[in-house]
Amino acid sequence: MHGRALALATGLKLARPELTVVVAGDDGDGFSIGGNHFLHACRRNVDMTYLVMDNEVYGMTKGQPSPTSPADWDSKIAPGGTGVSPFLPLAVALAAGANFVARGYAGDPNGVAELLVEAIRHPGFSFVQVLSQCITYRPDEKDWKQHIHPSRSAPTEDPAEASRRLMSDDALTTGLFYIGKRPPYAATVHSTAHTLAQIEEGFVL
Description:
Structural class: alpha/beta
Radius of gyration: 19 Å
Distance between the termini: 40 Å
Number of strands: 6
Oligomer: single chain
CATH topology: Rossmann fold
Number of domains: 1
Helix content: 25-40%
Order of helices and strands: HEHHEHEHEHEHEH
Strand order of the largest sheet: 1-2-4-3-6-5
CATH class: Alpha Beta
């Protein structure tokens, strides 16, 4: 919650590299409150998977606009819209160094499952955005079912090509966009023979 899951997951994976680590988040905590953690998790490229359920609204706290809400989305909290361009999660992840960039749709659970399998198997930091309607505060998102469509292009290993696709995308395209080859970051964990008493001696003034 509140964007801190990636920091905890990074420490866990580096301390216990044998574990398969999957992190769950949403557009509010992942791209706003925890935006800094998101950027640096992509940059570090630790071998884990980040799954973000994106409904373009703060659905748990009465429907405020989130970082991915359209600039002109009218709500009680922001009449007429915020006027702020929405955050582009996939493009930002790619630019920050994520090694796997994909988007799924909650209305296609089998497709999301396939993306997650690929993401978990791929070495490095894998990011999967899942478009998920919040019909309580965003009833207009019911139309997503008619407009979301699969990508017509095969995933690329070229970040420049992936960037061109993502920057011209309508944000409703699903599929795998980028598969990187950057080796994942791995910390060397050393065992220690120090006892607690020996450690305490180091702090004696």
